[in-house]
Fold each of these.
Amino acid sequence: MAGIEVTALHKRYPDGTVAVDHVDLSIGDGELFVMLGPSGCGKTTTLRAIAGLARQTTGDIRIGDTLVNDLPPAERDIAMVFQFYALYPHLRTRDNLAFPLRAEGLPKAEVRERVEEAARLMRLGPLLDRRPRRLSGGEQQRVALARALVRRPRAFLMDEPLTNLDAELRADMRTEIKHLQGELGTTMVYVTHDQVEAMSLGHRIAILNKGRVEQIGTPLEVYDRPATLFCAAFIGSPPMNLIEVEVADGKLRGKGGLVLTPPPGLPRDRDLVAGVRPEALEVTEPGAERSVPARVASVEWLGDEIIYVVDHGGERDVRVRMPPTGRFAADAPVGLRHTGGTPAVYDVKTEELVA
Amino acid sequence: MGVSVNEAVSTDPVRDHPPPARRRGGRGRSALEVALLTVLAIVMLFPVLWMIETSIKENRDVYAIPAKFFNFQFTMDHFKDVFVGAGGGRSALSVSFLNSVVVAGVSTVLATVLGVPAAWAYSRFAVKAKKDQLFFILSTRFMPPVVVVIPIFLMYRQVGLIDTELGLILIYAAFNLPFTIWMMKGFVDEVPAEYEDAAMLDGYTRLQAFRRFTLPLLVPGIAATAVFALIFSWNEFVFAIFLTSSDDVRTAPPAIAGLIGGTTVDWGLVAASSVVFALPVLVFAYLVRKHLVAGVTLGAVRR
Ligand SMILES: Nc1ncnc2c1ncn2[C@@H]1O[C@H](COP(=O)(O)OP(=O)(O)OP(=O)(O)O)[C@@H](O)[C@H]1O
Ligand SMILES: [Mg+2]
């Protein structure tokens, strides 16, 4: 087992596409590290560079203490699970699992033992004699995971391994992967564009955008204090409301009349945006205490909660998350109230968190 | 509500069993189809049938007027003549058949052995100006053999490849290679690169990964491509007649053509050698037909 250090990674494809601009990652030994970002931000490219499947243009990659820049994938001792599972179609599950071990030249008895063990961990018993074509998507995924862990590699790399599964199975597998990783204690780099997956799995999350790291932090940090406007708009569903504010009388005042408590240490003379989570707002009866007059533009019913889109005279409508008990109809005159603590505040120009 | 449920239920069996009227119409149409197809098949296959018939007729029945369709004298002499020479040894024709087998076989193998890895490389790796290169490769096929045979002849004369089997093998392989690369690239594109990636992480080198994982998946494609290459080499006439002259180098197409044109033409022999010539490709295509259909419908040339 080993940590992974990525320093100043840059990858430019021959056709001129810069897939990864500049990425620094420091992944701890035994950590479950998630790379999260929109499609095309360079997640797969970064992962493939770590695996050795694609050579970076510049930058260093260390696995454990070894500089692996020039090592072929086979010598990096890592296992990867692909979005498309890449099980060898002509081999039964048993042989698919045994393959990497035979490649290493392990003795037969040990191969059998390890295959059995992986099969037990991933509950593959009845599937051992089937070929991939006769396995369901979820089963193929379990086999792919088993094949990754049968080798006991120094690290796992996962490239959106659950994308092809339906929602329910995805949630199950998520739990399973997290549990497994905790059990084995093997470093894992997990790539996804699904923030729920990222939040629920990761010890830490790196948010990537256009080949750059926007933020690295625990799920809580990332959710509470997104480091940039991009993160603020990316994390959360619905994401933060970004409200342009001015500092006046020691308060943050939005155009629609919302008043927020400013965080300490705000810089002067800059255009600021406050990020307010939908759950830090509240829709009230019109004229309620500390509320500003507003109008419900639309209502999204989600069963366990209601998302109100509210027009309060600001530059844009805000979204408010409410328990499903309060009922305000669309177009109803209401009040809008801020109930959360100090919001995250961003500089409009640099797009970065200022306080 | 009740009505619509009933309707929904009652339509189902109807869908499974088409109404009798339509079925009768269907049968009538299929009888017509069969009749038409039979006529068409007879018209299309008549030359072939006639060739086969001629090859097993006594000579005087071959020339009989009016032609004898059924009541002719059966003989296998023509086939014997194809293989056994006048003196009793091997005939010149049988030598040319053997040459055809060698030339077509070796050139096909050569084109495949060179073309498959090339196609793999073009499919998997970032090659500079890939599209231009592929277009250039294909463009070598734009000119028909007749157009290029004179310069090839002159070049071959310089390097001493005139009238050699090696010369034919090389030119056929060169002619088949672009086709092989293009067709195989389509097949390689269909095989996900992740198999090789996974294999490389499992401890194999790039080439081992190709050989052990991608190659087996390419077998149908290779079979289909090889059949096309083989058919081209087997049937090729222009290069063969220009570049070879002696009986022991010549392939079957010019040899058979050479049977026609004397003062008398032994049509029985011409027919018999044509039958012998047509058989191997038919048999081979039949043997690999499963791969052929899978191959042709799977990838073919697509970008
Ligand atoms: N072989 C390649 N040649 C040229 N450009 C490429 C190649 N592979 C990827 N790219 C480009 O590099 C950028 C990053 O691609 P990458 O596959 O790393 O994205 P990703 O974050 O994994 O996206 P997704 O979530 O869609 O998988 C994209 O703009 C993509 O078009
Ligand atoms: Mg990707």
Amino acid sequence: MNIVVCVKRVPDTETKIKIGGEGTKIDPAGVEFIISPFDEFAVEEAIRIKEKLGKGEITILSLGPADAQTIMRKAYAMGADKGTHLNDATECQDTLAEAQALAAALKGMQFDLLLFGKQAVDYDNGAVGVQVARLLNIPVVSRIIKLDVADGKATVERESDMGKEVVEVKLPAAFTAEKGLNEPRYPKLMDIMKAKKKPLEEKPAQLEAPKLTIVKMDYPPARPPGKIVGQGEESVPALVNLLKNEAKAL
Amino acid sequence: MLPIEGKIFLLLLIGITVYFFTKRAQYLISLLKLGKAEDRSDNSGERLRFTLGQVLTQACALKNVTGKDLAGIGHMLLFYGFSFFVVSYGFHIAEGFYEKLNPSLFGEAFNNGFFFLLDLAGLVVIVSVIWAAIRRYVVRPERLVPSLEAGIILIVVFCLMILSFMTEGFRFLAEPEPFTSGAFVGKFFAGMLSGMGLQAHVHTLFMGTWFLHMMIVFGFGIYILYSKHLHVLASHPNLYFHSTRPKGTLQPIKDFESAESFGVSKVTDFSWKQLLDLYACTECGMCSANCPANNSGKPLKPKDVIINLKHNLFENGNNLLTKKEGEEEPLIVGSVVTHDEIWDCTNCMACMEVCPVAIEHVDKLDDMRRYLVLMESNFPAEVQTVFRNMENNSNPWGMGMATRADWAKDLGVKILSEAPGEFDILFYVGCAGSFDDRYKKVSRAMVKIMQAAGINFAILGTDEKCCGDSARRIGNEYLFQTMAQENIEIFKNYNVKKVLATCPHGFNVLKKEYPQFGAEFEVIHHTELILDLIKNGRIKLKGELAKTITLHDSCFLGRYNDIYQPPRQILNSIPQAKLVEMDRIQKTSFCCGAGGGRMWMEELRGKKINEVRTEEALTKNPDLIATACPFCLTMFEDGLKAKNADEKVKVLDIAEFVANHLL
Ligand code: SF4
Ligand code: SF4
């Protein structure tokens, strides 16, 4: 079983985001970049499948600037075998252009499973995985919480507003991982050491001119400070009044 | 003294004894050699002084004598008494071979004095053996577990003494000239025996008891090496090879790149010294008696860890010695020492502090943690988040690292990451001081104090990183070393010469463990600094605090760094403050439960340690509890809440007491 997992480097979720790049980009100074948490579920799932089957190869594919390789090594430490870095110094923000670049790279690869996180927690578009699958003309199930493979087929579960869906898909197919799929492991030190020596190929990303560009970023408006209405029972009417008339929550 | 047949028999006895003794000793040494190399050859003079000092004064045995536990007084008597006997056996053996060795060799006066002391020693030994028996079988402290071996030894020693007096008695009757006038107990026995109508056989009886006596002595010499009384011999080298590293420091892993395994999972992963520890254990149980895990009903009992490892080593010894290259060796982690035991340890070091023979429990447990974390990635689930948080945001809570210095906004503090400048003291705030809402108040109190004293200090701001203590103590040595190196680099860049820390964990690791990686700066704790400021008159305290205060000694401040007095002296310098001590203080202080990374783990087994300690504090009816550690502070506040006492009793850091009373 050959598995390709696409991962993206994103700012740590606790980062205080500062806008840089003439108001159109995140200022990377002082930002700790991590592997996007949903992508990490995808990596973990790939490793579990490989461990279960006792064979297979896991390839990591990442599109991003030079330091994307740091998070690729993290995926290696978890258990991935090799990978390709599609270098993009421009930090493209157009999901379709990114999907095309990834699809182009994937065309030369053999795989049964193609895994993504359901979205990268930077711009939260949640589009790339599905777009890549469309471009490659393979089936895709998004936001899965369970994945079983057997006999050239995958049985997956996903949660939707109406309840749980169970879907059977013929491989090769693409899936995007939702929280709940698994608990990613903490790598063993030996694996961290080995990760440093695993092969990592670097190629320039073949990006078309983006059809979508960010014109301007802004901070969300500062939240008004909280209000202490009073203490004890006597303050209840005042609170109800505020909730009704000011907050319009009731 | 002996006829020729007797001499031959004595020679034979000696030969047999030497043979079995050497054989067993060689076996014990070959087992030690299975352990990993560890250099303990430094400071031989100091080591020798320490060992002789401990053994000759019996400081080792007496160190735990308290109002509640008379441990060691009996041991001291037995030791002195029996040592005198051991010397006398040399004398007896020599006497066996040479005619008229006494009284002519050393003169009559010596002879009389010697036998007087010997008889006295015999009486002392008898008294102490009876005392030991009473303490094991009648008024037993919980830590002493009566065992068959202990019983045998006591009976043998007792019989040996009686036999020795009988031998003397028969000798008085058998020899025409009394061999000495000093052996007063022997004479008493002679008086008793003479009335029993044995006159015709006294010579035979003398020889018989003499040989029986000797045989028991030789047998005892061999038995020692097979029994728990191995400590009689092994404790001396163990004291000699005691750790001379700064107290409580863990050893760094040096070869991450090339090592094939990390930590300890098999008995031969221990160093020879860690194995020697196992031989040296006296089974006194002092360690377990002081262990917070054991005292809160958890499975960890440090004595049992040591004893179980020892038994396991002996059980597998032969297999290990004959094991072929590539053959698997049984794991001790998860079987001989369970995961629960390994994770329950708070690294409080109470066990090591009280152990009479300098056994290093914490190193062993933390080495096993290293194996579990680094090799197996097997640890309590909640710890993974902590590691991640430390990696990504350089603090265990996982707060955004850009907010690290937010607590200091508007305080007029020099923040180096914003504006580098000159300073005398770097205030290393630590993660709790930066992110924990309660402990931020202590950071502010410290700023207030230093500003009042006119100290030129600075903080690193967002360039400050987590010290890594929790990572190291949980066993993630790799993460710890990455963090330590990063910090040392930052400190160097800012040319830091002197560091102030409020958190004893940061204080301890910066001061004593960072030098392992090339750190060269002075580190002081805030209680030391504050006391200095008070003494030099740089700060003055006003107002009164007519309250009852009880003080909790943090393990990493107290046992790890022997800082016991500064917090007490500071409290005593606040007018009217009344300090009431808890029962377990200073060296035997009872941990709050948060050390060794336990701060970040669920406490699933037994009672909650912090509640046990809070209950103890509450028996003193304090108005306030004083601490000097963020973890202790949290543990007490939680403990008070659990005991519904948080309205009545408050917990304050020493810095807050002072900041509240600044002139
Ligand atoms: S360090 Fe403390 S908790 Fe750990 S075994 Fe020793 S006494 Fe018990
Ligand atoms: S380890 Fe030390 S304190 Fe514990 S039982 Fe053995 S000798 Fe006593």
